[in-house]
Amino acid sequence: MTGTLLLTGAALWLAGFVFESVGDWQLARFKARARTGQIMDRGLWRYTRHPNYFGDFCMWWSLFLISLGSAAGLATVFAPLLMTWILTRGTGQRLTDRRMAATRPQYADYIARTSGFFPLPPRRPG
After folding, report:
1. What residues does each domain of the chain span?
2. R_g (Cα) of the chain, nearest Å
3. Nearest to 58 by CA among 14, 7, 5
4. What confidence tens digit (pLDDT) does each residue in 35-49 have?
């Protein structure tokens, strides 16, 4: 069981790292070319409004899975729970969405079609 947790945690950590890194790279490239007010809705940003936060979420939960290999590992569950709350309800997603909606009128359309956190296929308009 410990080996399975370690491998699952390592795979989830790698997936989260790649997701966060690719999302940040895509956003940096977009910002270098974008006109004022444009919305990044390509690449990973087509499936989630916050790929960098989702990647971070995966990395925190992966570390918890890896820690379950020891008896004291369960006591660390507060860390990924707290980070999940911060990323989804605290200063992460909510604050970013509020700021973007206030400065970019077309952000409401992006919210309507794009998952807020977990990567999902875009919703059809209307």
Report:
1. 2-113
2. 17
3. 14
4. 888 899 999 999 999
